[in-house]
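Milestone 3.1: sequence recovery, worked example.
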């Protein structure tokens, strides 16, 4: 249960686990696992709507209460306290059954069945809310853009998701001297059914009893079904010689319901090689230092069926309810849009992966580690629909039209030792990955679209020279641009505005044609892909006391604030006065001599401008360094001595205190959290924040 300042939020989770292992006879065994989870979440319904967007664009002079003591209509407190509740009940049911049969020594037959059923019911009521005028008289206000003042609404949604898998496979292993063989073959199938149902009705009669039956206005119902299925045959061959040379060969033949019949099936091979170098005779002189060393490499293909929708080869007519501009019998008409083109040639994306690496253990395995380098190429990838002339009059079809390459590395190192009665350990991991478009039919050559050679996360922007401190400095800068100055980006340039660099030397600053051949003065100034993701775990224990510290972070990432997505959160003043805001950070803006608030010629932000976004272009000056390191968890515990608890028939008892998100080191603008960048529907800085959590616990084993 969380007590917000003006409303409550609660989250409860319950679980039941069960497991049965049975040996029917010497050749047949059976295992059964069951898990059930129940999650109950309740919060103000307004919390999941416009709340974070609204509070982030509040003016500093917005007051909480009026002179009569009533909540102000623009304080966001009224809809939070009185605007209704959202309740979610989520049930997850997992069933796993496995039958193992060994007809002959070395020969095994396995039958596995899995079932996961998820049921989700969500209730949302939006109550009519009221503020008060200067005479203390109530008047209705609207909670969201989708509701009218005084309007109340109940929304009920139910979803049932059923996912079934079956695996039937058999393996046979045989040792012939120093040679070990194992073969395996089988079949697997997956099937998912999803059913949704929703109902909505306005006009709640009794606010304390918000249900569909206790509301009076027009019904709005929705719902549907979807399903998909896959089937596959697979085989594997394993071979090793003296545990020194290892070989594995795999093959899969998979089919899916999500493509046309002639495109459903495909074959995906893979293989891997391993060399346990430490088993070689020439390695014996090194065994006292490096006691384990293994080289490995692999190559393989897998298929990806997940495209833009479940059945992209079907033409779908988008129908919108009550969206017409004409009234018929007192109500708006339904409308339908022209569907996009579809392709009957859509098929599997083929993900080809190559990996090379090694594992080692040194100093009697006190130091262990691994290194991997990988290259992953997705062939026949479903990329954005190609840009076709507007004369077509319809959206083009998505097709398998692109190749994407990913590459990177992973490193993991661990040291564990004991000094006297003190056990301690250090574990560090580092990973990096980049993605590049290898092939794509970019007919317009626009750099905003995919193109061959484009790195995922590229940030295109202008190069900023600084903020003009005087009108004369700006005039001098514009005079150096005789072919149009910065007029393509805005007008009325003066002191406090950004001076942009003429990169291509054509005597003006603009975006050109937005193509690779003519990008104007825009260049790649950064990349938003998180690079060098790392984690560090430190732990130690002594006479029952234990301490664990976990750091995580990103070593390199750029972030460009864009007015269209996070606007006022970063910039403060934007070209729409109703979307602007003012936080402490925003007051570091340019102010000339004689300004009422005092001069600030070296301000970080340009002068406030509520008429234009000319100073808010993506540019080098405001490109953010989003790398960070965070103390994700700190835990201190104490395990009670056994002589204290044996009389209570307790095997182990540990008490602990734990803290999450306790400290963050970053140079990112303080309005953002580096872990939630670009999260939420309203852009960075407008989402549920991460919390610092201090918890206490007790673990008891009987």
């Amino acid at each position: 249960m969380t007590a917000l300042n003006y409303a409550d939020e609660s989250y409860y989770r319950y679980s039941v686990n069960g497991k049965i292992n049975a040996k029917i006879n010497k050749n047949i065994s059976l295992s059964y696992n069951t898990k059930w989870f129940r999650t109950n979440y309740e919060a103000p319904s307004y919390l999941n709507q416009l709340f974070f967007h609204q509070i982030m664009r509040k003016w500093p002079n917005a007051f909480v209460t009026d002179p009569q003591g009533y909540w102000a209509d623009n304080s966001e407190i009224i809809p939070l306290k009185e605007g209704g509740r959202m309740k979610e009940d989520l049930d997850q049911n997992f069933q796993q059954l496995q039958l193992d049969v060994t007809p002959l020594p070395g020969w095994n037959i396995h039958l596995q069945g899995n079932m996961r059923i998820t049921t989700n019911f969500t209730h949302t009521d939006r109550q009519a809310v009221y503020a008060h005028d200067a005479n203390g008289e109530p008047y209705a206000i609207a909670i969201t853009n989708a509701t009218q003042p005084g309007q109340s609404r109940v929304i009920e949604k139910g979803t049932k998701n059923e996912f079934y898998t079956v695996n039937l496979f058999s393996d046979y292993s045989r040792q012939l001297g120093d040679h070990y063989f194992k073969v395996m073959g089988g079949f697997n199938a997956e099937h998912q059914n999803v059913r949704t149902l929703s109902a909505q009705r306005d006009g709640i009669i009794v606010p304390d009893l918000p249900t569909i039956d206790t509301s009076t206005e027009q019904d709005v119902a929705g719902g549907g079904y979807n399903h998909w299925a896959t089937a596959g045959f697979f085989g594997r061959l394993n071979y090793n010689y003296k545990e020194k040379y290892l070989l594995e060969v795999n093959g899969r033949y998979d089919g899916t319901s999500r493509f046309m019949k002639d495109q459903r099936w495909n074959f995906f091979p893979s293989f891997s090689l391993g060399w346990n170098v430490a088993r070689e005779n020439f390695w014996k002189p090194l065994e006292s230092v490096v006691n384990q060393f293994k080289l490995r490499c692999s190559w393989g293909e897998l298929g990806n069926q997940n495209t833009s929708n479940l059945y992209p080869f079907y033409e779908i007519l988008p129908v919108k309810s009550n969206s017409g501009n004409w009234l018929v019998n007192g109500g708006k008409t339904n409308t339908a849009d022209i569907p996009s083109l579809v392709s009957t040639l859509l098929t599997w994306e083929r993900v080809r992966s190559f990996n090379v690496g090694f594992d080692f253990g040194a100093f009697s395995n006190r130091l262990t580690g691994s290194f991997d380098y990988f290259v992953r190429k997705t062939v026949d990838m479903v990329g954005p629909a190609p840009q076709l002339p507007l004369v077509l009059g319809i959206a083009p079809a998505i097709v398998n039209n692109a190749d994407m390459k990913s590459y990177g590395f992973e490193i993991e190192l661990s040291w564990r030792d004991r000094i006297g009665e003190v056990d301690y350990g250090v574990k560090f991991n580092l990973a990096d990955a980049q993605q590049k478009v290898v092939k794509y039919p970019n007919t317009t050559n626009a750099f905003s679209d995919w193109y061959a050679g484009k790195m995922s996360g590229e940030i295109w922007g202008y190069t900023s020279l600084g903020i003009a401190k005087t009108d004369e400095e700006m005039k001098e800068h514009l005079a150096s641009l005789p072919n149009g100055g910065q007029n393509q980006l805005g007008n009325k340039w003066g002191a406090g505005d950004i001076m942009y660099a003429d990169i291509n030397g054509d005597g003006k600053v603009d975006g050109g044609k937005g193509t690779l051949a003519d990008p104007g003065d825009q260049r790649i100034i950064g990349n938003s892909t998180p690079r060098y993701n790392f984690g560090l775990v430190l732990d130690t224990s002594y006479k029952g006391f234990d301490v664990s510290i976990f750091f995580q972070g990103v070593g390199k990432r750029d972030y460009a604030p864009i007015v269209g997505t996070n606007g006022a959160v970063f910039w403060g003043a934007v070209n729409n006065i109703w979307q602007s805001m003012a936080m402490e950070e925003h007051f570091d803006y340019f102010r000339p001599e004689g300004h009422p608030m005092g001069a600030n010629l070296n301000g970080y932000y340009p002068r406030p401008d509520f008429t234009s976004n000319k100073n808010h272009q993506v540019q080098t000056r405001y490109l953010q360094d989003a790398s960070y390191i965070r103390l994700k968890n700190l835990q201190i515990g104490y395990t009670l001595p056994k002589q204290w608890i044996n009389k209570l028939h307790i095997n182990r008892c540990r008490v602990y205190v734990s803290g999450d998100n306790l400290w963050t080191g970053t140079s990112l603008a303080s309005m953002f959290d580096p872990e939630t960048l670009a999260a939420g529907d309203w852009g960075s800085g407008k989402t549920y924040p991460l919390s610092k959590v201090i918890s206490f616990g007790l673990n008891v084993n009987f």
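The longest helix spans residues 471-479. The helical segments are 51-56, 77-82, 471-479, 563-571, 642-645.
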